[in-house]
Sequence to fold (543 residues):
Amino acid sequence: MKKKVFALLLCGLPLLMNAQDAFDVLQMSQNDLRGTARFQSMAGAFGALGGDLSVLTQNPGGIGVYRNSDLGITLGLDFNSSESGVDKMNQTKFSLNNVGYIGAIRLDSEVMPNLNFGFTYNRVKSYNRHYVGGVGDIDNSMSNYVADGFINMDDYTVADLYWTDNFDPYFDGTAPWAAVTMFDMPTRTDGYVGIINDSGDGLMQGLYGYGTTGNAFYEVDERGHADEYNIAFGGNISNKLYWGLDFGILDLDFRSYQAYEEDLENPYVMTDDENLFLSPISNENTSATWGLYNYLHSKGTGVNFKLGLIWRPIQSLRVGAAFHTPTYYDMRDTYYVSASFKAYQNYELLYTADKGSNDGYDYSSTYTIHTPWRFIGSLAGVIGNSGIVSLDYEYVANQTMRIGNDRGDEYPDVTSRVKDYFKPSHIIRIGAEYRLTPNWSLRAGYSYKTSQVNKGVDKYEYNIVTVGTNPAYQYDNTVQHITCGVGYRYKSFYGDLAYVHQMRNSVYNAFSPINTDYIYDPNISADVKDKNNRLSLTLGVRF
Fold:
């Protein structure tokens, strides 16, 4: 399996430089716990309850529960905190989480008392996250990863690695973009030298070797959102079976800036002999600093369909089920990469270089992605006229994600990697509501989401393929929510307030390990912990 995945790494890069890869579509497929304040305060455990504006994004069968029309708006204030190592970054963001209208049409029929329709806007994902950190006493360098994994393993030569004017890392040349970017750096001499060096024996040499020490630094700044506009209709049959159909239109906007830097002592660099020519590789009294900087802007429009049912066999019990198709996105990316490098010997500058793709202009590409399909099963118990307890289970089929070209033709090698890297996520949601008086209610909830990746990824047994100009990848291990809230009802008016505390444990990887039967180069990774707090207020009227 290791040989197979590594072969895909080498062969797939030149062919797929104009699209995203497995970990990119994973990030674009995630949802947050958002919606109305009542929905959030019960951790989203509404699959068997219905009667809330948020159910159109979860179980549209809940629209059939309505007996009256509903109009509401939800505002949110997020306090985001991300920590990696000893570095902590804080952000405060205002958001519009939900606006919706449900129209209830009463029919003069015992078989179908109501036929309802609805329109809602929901923010289903916020990408806002900013973290910085460092890794001390690193065991490897990204330059070694590129030299071994991108060049030596595939027998590229110096002639394959030269950078030309307006070089396009996606389409120009033979070698992968990273090899060209890191090799061809102009020096103060007439030659060329860079982060990757020609060792003189037909192989390329990274900066890290025997006697090298150093530290790595990283920054990830993400912004954006995924918004869903829902059009739904549904009804109920004999007040026993509630059904609903939903058509969703999604707008995705994601921006990312990622920086990776290394500060090395005694690295292996080409030394300059009296400014006349380049001498063989040396690490005697040398030092180096270098960085790789990536900017990405992804925009897309997608559609999906949802089908939901709620069955009420007895007054105190409700059973729900919902199926979500994948979201079918048409995507467009713009991106830019730059690199900088400085080498020293005996504390004197040997050479310095800065290089950016496409002479400083962004590239662009178009492609399609299919997010995972989802299934939600739910149970809810109604305790007299005062209490509700609800349980949801959601299955997210991460292994079914797909990427294709702008004509919709699937990339089979990416599909293979998706199946290798990812496993289904399982989400459990528990919520409860207790009515203190006819006007006031208290609510609480908890949700837990399992890891998205297979054990081989988490244990660094795979050689992870990334495309574009960024070798970094990240994923969530677990996501938890602890929620509570209060609700007030007076005649046709209602107001709800929710507090959501999110705990998200993620892993950042600067680049993939190289793991084959005959070579192992470790990667550089770090844990990222998000502890985010949100206050949401919903105001609405039923009539």
